[in-house]
Design goal:
The structure is a single chain. It is built from 17 helices and no strands. By secondary structure, it is mainly α. The C terminus is likely disordered.
Length: about 375
């Protein structure tokens, strides 16, 4: 990865975060709070080992959600069905994981993960099938499938498969300990102090493997080339021998398979059963991660960690009375807004550089460079 690629991928998110901090400081000052004290407390609390562990735990599903969205976006499919796909996948994976009983630990975990990926892929593939056979736009189909998955299938089956519980929570049975993923605390504690009250999920390693696989598939395989070519120009890709319908279905299947893994960090590392309290909203948050990370594996990792850290470190604001926790919601919105602006400026600069290089080849002047850059910006 060249320095230019790093600058274009990592630079805009860092610039967006900096501008978001500035805007949040102005909001705090207008509301009568001391921005220096507020952010000082956030920084002090956010640099504690336990807070960092919690941030990486939250960044893990956010990263997987962002990658799931980015796979479809690589060919201009706005796949907003990750929310329903991961909830349905977690529900059925939890049911299977509890139902098979105790197995050999790696096999038990594999059964749960394969179930989740298969369910997510099938649910996303349904949207892809509707697009290629009935020309149903993926935004419409995935919105409808989200509602069907959460308010339909999961709610219906949870009422019939629930177990008796001492609490008021409606839930499925517990996954045996052979289906749990171990904590990474012993590894981290080799170079740090003892970690208290929180366990670093080992599912972060699977998320990293998914990111590496995503990067290699998109940039080093024929399938990745087909996805990128179809997203850039579907007519030219089809003329070059790329089957658009098959590519659409494959993209949705891959996106859904990754989406099925989003809830596994909480299911296998923390909760060990599905209930009404299972984390929701991660699918929609992944859209922001992918946009901020520019659909790049490294950029999405930075974005996921940033959002995870902001979510966990912001809790100190309410505890110490510095400001309402909703200030973080404002920051996230501003980060996304400035990220879009920064990417637009970065793309404009890239077009000008490319046009300048092309003009230098033919000996054209500055006016020709601007004209060529403007022409490339047109669809």
């Amino acid at each position: 990865m060249t320095w230019r690629v790093v600058r274009r991928v990592v630079g805009p998110p860092l610039a967006a975060v900096g501008l978001a901090v500035l805007v949040a400081s102005l909001v705090l000052a207008v509301s009568g709070a001391d921005p220096f004290a507020a952010f000082g407390n956030v920084l002090e609390y956010g640099t504690r080992l336990e807070t960092l562990v919690e941030a990486f735990n939250r960044a893990t599903p956010l990263y997987l959600s962002g990658i799931a969205f980015a796979i479809a976006m690589r060919m201009n499919l706005f796949q907003i069905g990750v929310e329903g796909q991961y909830i349905l996948a977690a529900f059925l994976a939890a049911y299977v994981g509890a139902g098979v009983g105790a197995l050999f630990p790696p096999l038990h975990v594999a059964v749960i993960l394969v179930t989740a990926m298969a369910v997510g892929a099938a649910w996303a593939g349904l949207a892809g099938w509707m697009k290629v056979t009935r020309n149903v736009h993926e935004v419409i189909s995935t919105i409808m499938l989200n509602a069907i998955a959460v308010a339909g299938v999961v709610s219906f089956l949870l009422g019939r498969w629930k177990i008796e519980s001492e609490t008021l929570d409606t839930r499925l049975g517990d996954i045996p300990e052979t289906g749990w993923m171990p904590s990474l605390n012993p590894v981290v504690e080799l170079v740090t102090r003892e970690i208290k009250r929180v366990d670093l999920t080992s599912f972060i390693l699977i998320a990293a493997l998914v990111g590496v696989a995503y990067h290699l598939i998109i940039n080093r395989t024929r399938l990745g080339y087909d996805l990128r070519a179809t997203g850039a120009n579907p007519w030219a890709a089809e003329a070059g021998g790329v089957p658009p319908k098959r590519t659409i279905v494959l993209a949705m299947l891959l996106s859904g398979a990754v989406a099925g893994l989003v809830g596994m960090a909480d299911l296998l590392g923390d909760q060990h059963f599905y209930s009404l309290r299972f984390p929701q909203g991660l699918g929609f948050a992944g859209i922001a991660v992918a946009l901020l990370g520019r659909n790049h594996a490294v950029g999405a990792a930075f974005a996921a960690v940033a959002f995870g850290w902001l979510e966990r470190a912001s809790g100190v604001l309410e505890v110490r009375g510095d400001a309402p926790r909703e200030i973080v919601t404002i920051m996230v919105g501003v980060i996304i807004l400035f990220a879009v602006i920064a990417y637009a400026l970065a793309q404009r600069r890239a077009r000008i550089e490319a046009a300048a290089a092309a003009a230098a080849q033919v000996g054209e002047g500055p006016d020709a460079v601007e004209e060529m850059a403007g022409a490339e910006a047109e669809p």
